[in-house]
Each structure stands twice: as structure tokens, then as C-alpha cells.
Design a protein that fits this description.
Radius of gyration: 42 Å
Helix content: 25-40%
Strand content: 15-25%
Number of helices: 11
CATH topology of the largest domain: BirA Bifunctional Protein, domain 2
Order of helices and strands: HHHHHEEHEHEEHEEEHEHH
CATH superfamily of the largest domain: Bira Bifunctional Protein, Domain 2
Oligomer: single chain
Bound molecules: zinc ion
Amino acid sequence: MGVVEELHELRERALTDISSAQDTSALSDVRVAYLGKKGSLTGVLRGLGSLSAQERPTVGKTSNEVRRALEAALDSRKSELEATELQERMDAGALDVTLPGRRRAQGHQHLIQRITREIVEVFVGLGYTVAEGPEVEMEYYNFTALNHTPHHPARSASDTFYVRDRSEGAVVSATGQSDVLLRTHTSPVQIRTMEENDPPIYIIAPGRVYRRDIADPSHLPMFTQVEGIVVDENITFGDLKGTLDHVVQAIFGEGRRTRFRPHFFPFTEPSAEVDVSCGICDGAGCRFCQGTGWLEILGCGMVDPNVFGHAGVDTDRFNGFAFGMGVERIAALKYGIPDLRMLVEGDMRFLRQF
Ligand SMILES: [Zn+2]
């Protein structure tokens, strides 16, 4: 077979290969196979030198024609394939502007954090400042300075998480427990604040507290408190009552009533528990309030002079009141949450509702 026939045959093969290339990358392989440095057409041209002077012009002319034909075919197939690929990419990422938008999930504050902030804002509006203290606390600040007797049951290792025990060389207190614990209330912050500041003092202490309770519908081993203390001249129980009435209505809504019941706390005297009228039956009595018409929401009282003594406050000149509430309980009462554990389980179907 002569070189010219060989070229014609090469052109036919190449044109078939070009038209059957299914994408631009396969087409680029075809180009290299025929027109590249080691390609078939290049190989034929390399052999030109061995041809006779008579054959050379015809072969040269034919090979140029073949090259031009292949280049034209390659270019046209390339445009075709590029158009197809562009269409495929557009189809894959197609935008239908008539479709409703996809809402991006947006984070928000946890219900407990939000209610804590709401409570804090009510007190800040009354002129209180926010105080904070350590969650790992000395037994002295958590119990002794708050007038708990040496054998008060709350001090026992079955009620309180102790961080250091005797075997680790901890200082052992009169009660036989070590002296470092996870605070069981935020009241230690009140002692620390009174130690460092002179009256008048108007503070609230929000934060996490820990008790050795098994989690059940109404108990959590870790929960959130907002406690507060006022130290000033001529403070009366009436001031306490007026303050808490205002706060309860700010949290639960206008029209909710409060009720103060005598109670006992080691750090206040007299002490009271405060109930809010049931929001479901408005005090008539229903299942939610167990037929009483009232829901217990906080504890309070006039600060015991012994507590002022530990904190170095002049009791001849100053007195005051203190109060504390559990944020999880308030959340449960406000939103009718039947089980406190739902607040810490992290189930988004529950949390998204708030
Ligand atoms: Zn009720």
C-alpha cells in the first residue's frame, strides 16, 4: 500500500475515532494519538525523507490535507462536546426560581439560658448587678458561712458531690467531709460578694449548681439557679415581698398572684417559700397544680445575722434579704414541661419549640 493510501486510511480511522469520542478528555486523547509528537500522522510524515522526489510533493500535499481535515473535525467535535458538558452541568445544578427557598437551620439560645437571661434582665432593671463565683467551691462558703450546722444533712456525701476526699490528703472539716465540693447553690457567691464589697449591695448570682440527686421528672443532678441578696439600711420584709411580686409578674405575666408561706432555711430568718397562682386554672385548682391552685417557685427570707457575721457585715447598721429560684423549675411551670430531663437531653424536636 502506498503512502497516500495509508494517509487516506489513517484519516478515515481518525474521523471515526473523533466522532465516537464521548467527552472532551477522550477527544483530547484522540488528538494526541494522531497529531501528537508520537502520533500516527506525525509518524508518516517522519518517513517522508525516504520517499522519491517524485512522490514527495503528493504525499506532502495529502498529509497536509489530512492534518487540516483532522484538526477541523477535532475542533468541531470539541465544540459539540463542550456544549453538551455545559448543558449537563447546568442541568445538574439547575435553579428553579419558582421553588420555595430552603430554610437554613438557625441556632438559638437554649430555653434555660434564655429564661436565666430574662430573670437577670428583670433584676438589672431594678438596679441589681450580676455576680459570679466558682462552681467548685470550699465547704466553708457553701455551708458553714451560710449558717448550716456541722451535721446538717445537706453536707452529707449522699447529698453533695465532694471533689477531694480524705485519701487524697484533703483538709477534713468537723463533719468528716473534705473541704472542696461542687456548690449546691449559688449562695456562696453572696458571701464572697459581701466579703469584698461594702453595703449597699444589690446582686444576683445566676449559675449552675450540683446535687447528688438521681435524675427524674422533677430532679436533675445539675441545674441552674438565680439567687440574690440585698444588704442595705432599713430593709424590711415588705421590700422583699414587693421585689418578688414584681419579678414573678415580669416572668409569668401580669395578673399572676404570689403567696408567701413560712418556711425554714439555715441562712434566712424569717424564711418563706413563695408560690405563684396556677396559670392553667388561675387558682381554682387543677391537675397541673395538684388541685392547690398554687405552684411553688422560690425560697426567700431576711438574711440571718449569723450569715452577716461570717461575711463581716455590721448588723447594727445593715440588714437585708435573700432569695433563690431554680430556673429549670420555672421553665417547666411556665411552659408546662412535664419532665425536667427533657431540658438536658438535647432532643432538637423538643428544644426547637422554644
Ligand atoms: Zn392549676
